[in-house]
Amino acid sequence: MPQKIFKVMPRTLNQSLLNLRTKGLVPGIMYGQSLKTSIPIQIPFTALQSMINDTSTMTFSLELDGETYNCVLRDFQTDRLHTTIIHVDFQFVKPGEHIKMSIPMSYEGIEHLRSKKYLLEKAISRIPVKGCVDILPEAFVVNTGEMERGAKIFVSDLQLPKGVELLINPETIIATVQ
Q: What is the number of other CB atoms lying within 10 angstroms of the CB of residue 17?
């Protein structure tokens, strides 16, 4: 299935950020090793929300002035109440490029734990790794359906694709069943 292309617009640094936000745009930056300089951008809030909610991919195609850039959504900042996105960072990546990334955790079988009145206590929600952008997983998925009270999930329990390196101690506890 072809990847959706999100249109972004260039942003001049003297533009009022408040004015952009009231127009439904989010200021941002695009950077990367392969870019000569960082590029200030603006993106419609609806497009950004669509990216954040898309858990099927880690890379997004951004179109800027007729040119397409493959990027990862590196970070976004929110206001103090965490209700509005106020800035976004994209990292431009080339196929085959090695990057550091924090991969989110995802859990299956939570309903089974709840049916037994167990609780999954999550210690960390993202796992820092380094590897080729083409093979980094979208998320680390752990099936908790058969776990019993007292069970622990360690970083070492995760299935890493070949060529992906952990940037955290493998003995770190990710979650426990209470």
A: 15
Tokens (6 digits) for 24: 């439904």
Compute φ and ψ for 115, nearest 5 degrees: -65, -25
- Of 61, 94, 127, which one is at a domain's C-terminal end? 94
Q: Which residue has the tokens 């210690």?
A: 123
Tokens 């991969």 belong to 103
The whole-angstrom separation of Cα 133 and Cα 69 is 14
**What residues make up the domain containing 41?**
5-94
- How many domains would you assign to the chain? 2
Q: What is the pLDDT of residues 120-137, one digit of tens each?
A: 999 999 999 999 988 898
Rounded CA-CA distance 142/139 in Å is: 10
- Per the confidence metrics, is the pTM higher than 0.70? yes
Task: Identify the three-state secondary structure at position 135.
Answer: coil
Distance CA 176, CA 12 (A): 48
